[in-house]
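re the bet — no i am not wrong, look at it urself. input seq straight from the record:
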Amino acid sequence: MSSCRRLGGGLVQAGGSLRLSCTASGFPRGFSFSSYSMGWFRQAPGKEREFVAAVIWSGTRSSTGDSVKGRFSISRDNAKGTVFLQMNNLKPEDTAVYYCAADRNPYYETPFSPTYWGQGTLVTVSS
């Protein structure tokens, strides 16, 4: 995945919502967006990268990390080659750089293990 165009990062107040999107391109020859599981990770300053959410190729099964469960959801639009992360009830501790990622396994296994990474986008949640 040579590029991942990100939309939706920025500054939001605690309790607010934000939607990230990632349009991926540049997959190896013979592969397409719909053949990959897609996911989101995040990394806060001074912390390790953390799994946020993942979705299988069809969009019919997904999972979220414990710290965002019930607040964040992931979805995808294969026709547009885009994966989304809907973030609700944001908290200051959600402040991080968010990365989209692709797993060559269309039915990812836990833990989600990306094959390709996109560039990050900063989300800042103010208290």
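see?? The two ends are 35 Å apart (CA to CA). told u. also The chain is about 0% helix and 50% strand. so pay up
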